[in-house]
What does this fold into?
Amino acid sequence: MDLELAGKVVLVTGGSDGLGAAVCNRLVWEGARVALCARNLRRLEATADTLRAQGGEVLALPADVSRAEDLERFVKAAHERWGRVDGLVNNAGSASAKPFLSVTEQEWEEDFQLKVFAAMRTVRLTVPHLRAAGGGSIVNVLSIKAKEPGKNTTPSSVSRAAGMSLTKVLSKELGADGIRVNAVLVGMIQSGQWNRRAEASGKPVDEFYAERSREAGVPLGRIGRSEEFADVVAFLLSARASYVTGTAINVDGGLSGVV
Ligand SMILES: NC(=O)c1ccc[n+]([C@@H]2O[C@H](COP(=O)([O-])OP(=O)(O)OC[C@H]3O[C@@H](n4cnc5c(N)ncnc54)[C@H](OP(=O)(O)O)[C@@H]3O)[C@@H](O)[C@H]2O)c1
It folds into this structure.
């Protein structure tokens, strides 16, 4: 299946590790030009080097998506480099799930800056470029908790639900410009953050993942691989998803209790 992504310019936030890096990798493989950002410069450059070694046309910029000025720099630099933008993946984020009464005001604020304000800002900055390109695709990376919040999952389940709402609103407002907006709801997928938890547990990574999958009761019987996530994102960014907008797709091995 030709995704027709060759030559397209796609921005990926949090592209230096885990799921975002897998998306960058897949996009480079498809011949797309990729701009990625993250905070840690060393990891960002290492990932960018790996992508370039595969022939990728890559722009890597240090940026904290919680800061409006960093996002402005990121989007501007990508547009200046290639003169167009065709896609955006709002992926940067980290886990934050605690009992409601233990979440501080500051933690609520930080989580919303990282997951809601960042997406709102990148979309606002990118839409004029997508319009100029004649349309495009935005993918918001969320969590299955957006649809099925459980106890001890704040503030993330709330900020992720906001991301789902934003996805739907934008799909309705931007459809006339040929801009599609979708969300991918992640269950448990191997990534940098999970690998770090495995390391901290002192257990071999495979054993750690198998235990987490059993505990959670993942119907497919395993934690997902980041490439499996990247395949879905690449599809949503591509011409093959040209009639798909306003959806929130679970990529979770069947873990979510709701469709
Ligand atoms: N993997 C899962 O099972 C799972 C489940 C549910 C939701 N998710 C969501 O999926 C997305 C990717 O997660 P992951 O598992 O791939 O995590 P990861 O392996 O920790 O990677 C996160 C990426 O985001 C970047 N990042 C984090 N905070 C940032 C910030 N403030 N500004 C810019 N970049 C930032 C990180 O780089 P720096 O730290 O250097 O900035 C890194 O590149 C996140 O939004 C996460 O919440 C993942």
